[in-house]
Amino acid sequence: MGQESFGRLRDWVEPAHPSIVGRFTDLVVIYTRIRDQFQKQIDAAFDRVSRQIGFVVTTTIPVVIEIGENGGPQSINVGAEHLKGTLFEKELVVALRPQLKKADTWKVSPGNYNLYLIWYDALKLKLQTDWMEPAHFRRVGGAIQPEMARLSATQTQEALARIRWDVREPAHWFDPGIAISPEEAVLIEAIDQVYADLRLVERVSFYRQAMRRVVRPEVQEPAHFRRIEELLQSAKGGELGVELAALLHRYGY
């Protein structure tokens, strides 16, 4: 593992529970097999999706890989509801299923593993210039469709404007305002070890620390509370109150 410190992100390292160490080892094995055996196919599938859509939507997608009792891959499914029925599921997940079934035993613990398939070349290029990923993927009119490539610039912007703020890619790892769970920290470490050129640990640590020291323009003084009060008293105040309550509840408040 790299020498860069995650701070709190790496609390699992010492003293680490044996199950966490085992999980990390299994993730490294799985990602190494994916890189060595399937990376070219994965990169090509991402490229096909982007060509059909007309632009690069994302360089990673969440998946769930099931490892059987024999230590080998049994199945792969998309790890997000909004990706089901999309080109990403068809070109990446469905295409990989028969290849995974033919794979040899990976000798890892049985169970489900929440991973991210990576468009390696594109993500490496992106991280060299900016840590933020491209526009978040989501269903547009039920699914991301090839017809998006034929939309005008205005229509495309309108479609992207409907993307929910809570649909996040791994770019949220770089946001200090979003906590990284121990499971995600172990996953980041595993990706960093297998795809060392991405320098993921270093970049996540750097940007989370840097952004904590920067006051962004949208962070206003208490004067902005008056505007919130005015909004709550407006015609849409009730709707706004319900959404705020749901948001606070979602984060445990």
Précis, in short:
With 253 residues, the chain is mostly helical.
Q: What would you note in describing this structure?
A:
The chain is mainly α and 253 residues long. The chain folds into 2 domains: 7-219, no CATH class; 221-253, no CATH class. 47% of the residues lie in helices and 9% in strands. The protein has a 3-stranded antiparallel sheet, with helices on one face. α1 (18-53) crosses α2 and α1 (18-53) packs across α5. The longest helix is centred in the N-terminal third of the chain and has 36 residues, at 18-53. The model is unreliable at 1-9, 131-149 and 163-167 (pLDDT under 50).
Topology summary:
Elements: H1 18-53, E1 60-67, E2 73-78, H2 87-102, E3 111-118, H3 120-129, H4 153-161, H5 182-194, H6 200-212, H7 224-232, H8 237-250
Antiparallel strand pairs: 1-2, 1-3
Output the radius of gyration.
20 Å
The first-to-last residue Cα distance is 36 Å
Number of helices: 8
Largest sheet: 3 strands, antiparallel
Order of helices and strands: HEEHEHHHHHH
Q: Order of strands across the biggest sheet?
A: 2-1-3
Share of β-strand residues? 5-15%
Shape: globular
Structural class: mainly alpha
Number of strands: 3
Q: Number of domains in the coordinates? A: 2
Helical fraction equals: 40-55%
Keywords:
253 residues; mainly alpha; 3-stranded antiparallel sheet; 8 helices; 3 strands
